[in-house]
Specification:
The protein has 473 residues and is of the alpha+beta class. The chain has two domains: 159 residues, GAF domain (Beta-Lactamase); 227 residues, PPM-type phosphatase domain (Phosphatase 2c, domain 1, 4-Layer Sandwich). It has eleven helices and 15 strands. The protein has a five-stranded antiparallel β-sheet with strand order 2-1-5-4-3, with helices on both faces. Strands 6-15-14-11-12 form a five-stranded antiparallel β-sheet. Strands 7-8-9-10-13 form a five-stranded antiparallel β-sheet, with helices on one face. Strand 9 and strand 10 form a beta hairpin. Helix 1 packs parallel to helix 5 and helix 7 packs across helix 8. The longest helix is centred in the N-terminal third of the chain and has 56 residues. It is globular. The termini are far apart. About 1% of the residues have low confidence.
Amino acid sequence: MEQIDFFWIVLAVALYAFLVLFIFVAQRRISNLKAHLVDALHKKAEIGNFLSLFSKNLSGMSDMDGAMSRVARYVADLIGAKALCVFTLDEDGRLVAKGVYGSFPPMHYASQHVLTKPVHLMAALKSEKIKIGDGIVGEVAFTGEGVLIDDATEDPRLSNAPLLVETFMAVPMRREGRVAGVICAVNNIHHDAPFAPEQFSALRFMSDQVVLADNILRVYASLSEQQRIGQELEFARQLQASMTPDFAPPWAPFDIFASTTPAKEVSGDFYDFIEVDEDRLLVVIGDSCGKGIPACMLMATARSFIRASAERFTTLREMARDLNNDLFLDTGDERFVTVALCLLDRRSKTVEFVRAGHTELLVKRSGHPVRAIYPDGAALGLLPPEVVGDFDILSFSFLDDMSILLFSDGITEALNARGEEYGLEALTDVFREFTEGTRSPEALADAVQEAVDNFAGDEPRADDQTIVVISHA
């Protein structure tokens, strides 16, 4: 009897320990998810605001120093710093102040006179040429590692500054893998407290955006207007290429292929593949209104919002609503994006689909006709949240003999020499013919593009053309 009682006691203790451990793990996971959500929201705002800033001012930056100082002010406001300086490498390989915000002190000040007027501080700061490895700024450039100093008053590297530096942080900027400059921030705007790790992380994150701004300003400073146009196109091409996936991730039982063909040098169409979690993959296809660089910049903004929203994903409906709200607030009048979102769940072998003003979803099973599906949903960014309406969700099982085709309207609206459109019926015929055999998604996409090209002949493309095919692996 005593042995039985001892057994139940041991079992109860074990269960209690397991319960305590389970609660601890659950609380840690909730805490991590909350932190991840906050970080995703911050990054979304940072990327979106920065891209919006430069897409609106791309053609009007005549004052190079003033432009970079506006960038410095934007970053300082974002991270909560009283003063900030962007140092870049000059032709001699020395660090010089390119953009300044606030009363940022010269780092290598050697005069015995105390500088108090901002104009004198700025003149001293602009005259500095810092060698790599010299002082705290040169050390960051040499090591390629950021620094965060809670109490800068005790650091000898900052003791010669003509103004009191209470807290300090600096991060390197990199261009093509090499250090191209340093961003330094001094003194926290929050109750004279030291900079927090979150502020340091935000400064590191924004360093890539500052390098992007510096690249644009260098183009505008050194090239003629015609050369600038070509450089803008090249920049936009590189931006778009960096955002376009080379291939879809393996996601059995789904086999995915995508391709896009721009009407001009750059495209307003885009596609993307975002892993929501270990079982769900979000397939995105979108079309920004317009063509060329403005459409490309709008595409970049939309893609950034989508990726940020995916980090806090709940449902496709909520994602579509959030994207519309963000784009409506961030884009100008009559600027919008059409998007189709396809959520692939490889565990349940299901597909969820939402459409925001985009073209139909075509679905085909072997031995069955092609179905064109178009749930209700307005284009994103065109209407305010209170009038945009709801977004319908379509859910269905992904069967063994099923294929899915998503496309932009540049496919069905392609024109021939007589001004006739290629049309949905012709696209459906190609889709039906090729899905009856054992054709790969890539072969189907190639067949569609070849059929459209043959129909158009020598007529130039009037719109970007994008295709995404999903078949059973």
